[in-house]
Amino acid sequence: MHGQKRAEYKARLLHPDTRAKLGSKAQQWNHLSEELLKQRRRLFSSPPPLSDIDTRGKANEGNAAAAAPSPEVLLALTEKMLSVNPDPSHLWNIRREMLVYLIQTAPPSAMNTTDDDQEGVDNDSSAKSSILDIEVELKLTAHCLQRNPKSYSAWFHRKWALVYFMNGSTSQQEHWTNMKSILQSELELCVQFLQLDERNFHCWNFRRFVVGLLGSSGGSDVTTTSENDGEVNNDDDEPTTTSAVDNFSGSWSAWMHQIEEEDKEVWMGPQISQNACRAVGMSTGSKDGSSDAIKSTTPLSKRELEKIIMNEWDFSTAKIQDNFSNGSAFHYRSKLLPLVLEFRSSGDSASSPSEAYEAISLARDEWDAILLDAIFTEPDDQTIWFYHRFIVTWARRNTVVVDGADAEVTEEFEGLLYDMVDSIQELIDVEKEDSFEGNTQDRHESKGAKCKWAYLGMHLVLSTLLEFKSNEVDDEDKIELRERTKECLDELMRIDPDRRERYQILESKLYR
Amino acid sequence: MTSETAAPVGPFYDALHANYIVTLGDKLDSPTSYEGAVTEHLRVSGVYWSLAALALLRTEGEVDDLMGLTKPIQAATDGTDENKIRSAIVDWVFQCYDARVGGFGGNCSGENPHDAHLLYTLSALQVLAISNSLDDERLDKDAIANYVSSLQNEDGSFSGDEWGEIDTRFTYIAFSCLALLGKLPLPDWNNSNSTQVVSEEKPIIDTYKAVKYIMSCRNFDGGFGCVPGAESHAGQVFTCVGALSIAQSLHLLEDADLLSWWLAERQCDSGGLNGRPEKQADVCYSWWILSALSILGRVDWINTGKLGQFILNCQDDEDGGIADRPMDMPDVYHTFFGLCGLSLIGQLEKIGNKEGQNYRQIDPVFALPTDVVSRLGLKAQVIRNGGVDVEKRLQLHSILDI
């Protein structure tokens, strides 16, 4: 059991009061669990569930779990159980089943589709609506996630509810305005959850999901969209023939046309299947296929898309500055960087020398503004060095432009690399002096040997420089670079013998 | 391997672990077990972890006798119910079959199986594999294969169930399920970039697209996340590398050593492995990381002696079982993955030799004992670096030379 101290756990269980309390909780759970499945089976036993109006009508009069099954009772039961334990996915399934059932059998007046087998629905249906009561689901999942912030199924239900809601209305302008404010507050929720645990990857994924929805939620504000960047809108003037749910999957499809080539680095994939959306009859995609609300929305302008991305970029900056060990924020940044480059060098064609130049200057900004500070503050934190590695290799790749390397670009990149060599050497010198003075603090178990990561960083920069000279004859510079690279590896073998195997392989490649 | 694995220090509690596993099911079955109640939804997986763990320590016949795989046995009692007979595990697994869709739920309540999910479908098939019951006539292989197929999305990814959560875990599961059923079509890398067409029928899934999807989840550090754009995580790395291995597609891993290095850097000063940079070590990563390193042919990039010691330090010396960290409360999940870790670094074998026990080995791709994998004729792929011979247990797979 994660993080449960053995002695304390066992001692707790020995106490008769605790045993009795847990025992009765267990019995209660087991009773509800059985009851829920029984009732669901009775409700849906025969024939197809959605036309089973009579059962429902009667059920509304019941008020206890023991009464005839009704979707409302089942909803209450799932809420009760999930509030205690949010993990069981079948409980969320039952909840969704009931929500969809209630919406699809709601009075036709509130629906955009004309279903004629709605007769017989009792008039006492004020509580029912053709739209999902999103607030209820958001509140329930928030409660569950406070209990267990790593519950896959609770995070998923929240995503499902948002997507279902987005698809569920025809009142266009109002709906989108409402939706956008909901999505904005979802970003706020992420801020709160990431304050509790800045590495919660479920929450980071959820944030990317929300950003994906924001990007595909349409340009609601007409004045903004027509202001400029009209070209983007014109390109997509044709109503999309694909159904609405194609865009509401949390993928970043809205940004993909910003990238000239198929750039996998940027691609944030869907987190909820479009097939599933169709299968459960997401309202707008229903029988007659009408999805007016969606067709009438215009894609966001380039400026609006840029604003969303820059907001995320700033968010990652803030999280990193809170704590340089935040690998999740660095990871996000690695994904955002190509998009930021795209917005910065807007207008240039991809792989042109000017875009390559812009990439190197962006890499230098990352080094100057983030990395330098970080490595001197937390020199043994591998998170930072992995990002350093990303920046170096990313910039390296960007030096390759259409007609081979551009001299100016190459020179700029080499300049950056030599600056890195100097700073890392300075860091190593400072750190060694520091350790000589016996300055040892409490170290996290993942830190490893002192200066190990500085040497690894140095090794990376030196071997990248060497790579640039791979076609040149061995001049003094090159021989010196190779010597210094070897020194790094020798030092690493000494201070990090656990990974000696790898350093030996790297050294053997050096003289090949 | 050039580095010599140091002998572990301290005892290995064979009998305690076996007893812990054998008695666990009946403890959880008690209507007053809180642990049983909060984990009831994943019971099929719990049973798989238990069986697979015990299978490493005991022979097939012994496991059947102790756990009642294929026959009813007397339940371990807490003193209240002397002669309680528990039905065979295989029979119970079939009660968890959700015939509505063709998959297995995580448990059943009387006649009502819980909703099917890929997670539990694989666990159920793994239990049947360990029990040598994959040819049981109750197993509707076509229906299950169709269920798996129905969950593939247009971009190649898989949903966990019909509600549509996407995750690379489900790709591994889909591949593993179909492989166990003998129905996995392999991508045809030699000819067109498509899934191999056997006979004239359309392949049951598009394995080629599924593999491409896996590759779209790769990150700058060489690792993989649960969807494209998600952060690398060692558990997710196993599912992606394992899926590539089952689909005989490891050649797509350009710079496999970048990934191996990232995995090797998961080893902490304590010897244990963590799942992401700057996180605490946890026994379960002994499985996620070592299995991936085994497939990539780089187990010797970590200090296996220190890892073995860390795992042994996580044993409960009173009641058996292995915990996530030293002095923590054990559970069956960490017990299984701890034993897997010891097996993959060859220490379980050494301990067995010393104690006169002939321990079975775990297969790093299918997470089943190697004799089961061999019996079923399952074939995945592993990497051989620079011509160095792969470990004996891996030789039943095909070898990719790098």
Automatic annotation (TrEMBL), chain A:
Compositionally biased tracts (Acidic residues): 228-239
Reaction(s) the record says it catalyses: geranylgeranyl diphosphate + L-cysteinyl-[protein] = S-geranylgeranyl-L-cysteinyl-[protein] + diphosphate
Region annotation Disordered: where it falls in the sequence: 43-68, 220-242
Listed GO MF terms: Rab geranylgeranyltransferase activity
Protein name listed in UniProt: Geranylgeranyl transferase type-2 subunit alpha
A single GO BP: prenylation
InterPro entries named among the record's database cross-references: Prenyl_trans_a
The enzyme's E.C. designation: 2.5.1.60
Species whose genome carries this gene: Skeletonema marinoi
Role description: Catalyzes the transfer of a geranyl-geranyl moiety from geranyl-geranyl pyrophosphate to cysteines occuring in specific C-terminal amino acid sequences.
Any one GO CC term of the record: Rab-protein geranylgeranyltransferase complex
Protein family (similarity comment): Belongs to the protein prenyltransferase subunit alpha family.
UniProt keyword RNA-binding, yes or no: no
Keywords: Prenyltransferase, Repeat, Transferase
From TrEMBL, chain B:
InterPro entries: PGGT1B-like (IPR045089), Prenyltrans (IPR001330), Ptb1 (IPR026873), Terpenoid_cyclase/PrenylTrfase (IPR008930)
Keyword Metal-binding: yes
Keywords for the protein's UniProt record, in alphabetical order: Metal-binding, Prenyltransferase, Repeat, Transferase, Zinc
Recorded GO MF terms: metal ion binding; Rab geranylgeranyltransferase activity
Cofactor binding remark: Binds 1 zinc ion per subunit.
Metal-binding in keyword set: yes
GO biological process: protein localization to membrane
EC number: 2.5.1.60
Gene3D superfamilies assigned: 1.50.10.20
Domain of life: Eukaryota
Names of the cofactor(s): Zn(2+)
A Pfam family assignment: Prenyltrans
EC primary class: transferase
Catalytic activity: geranylgeranyl diphosphate + L-cysteinyl-[protein] = S-geranylgeranyl-L-cysteinyl-[protein] + diphosphate
GO CC terms: Rab-protein geranylgeranyltransferase complex
Residue stretches making up the Prenyltransferase alpha-alpha toroid domain: 16-367
Oligomer status and interactors: Heterodimer of an alpha and a beta subunit.
Sequence similarity: Belongs to the protein prenyltransferase subunit beta family.
Function comment: Catalyzes the transfer of a geranylgeranyl moiety from geranylgeranyl diphosphate to both cysteines of proteins with the C-terminal sequence -XXCC, -XCXC and -CCXX.
Protein name: Geranylgeranyl transferase type-2 subunit beta
Lineage: Eukaryota, Sar, Stramenopiles, Ochrophyta, Bacillariophyta
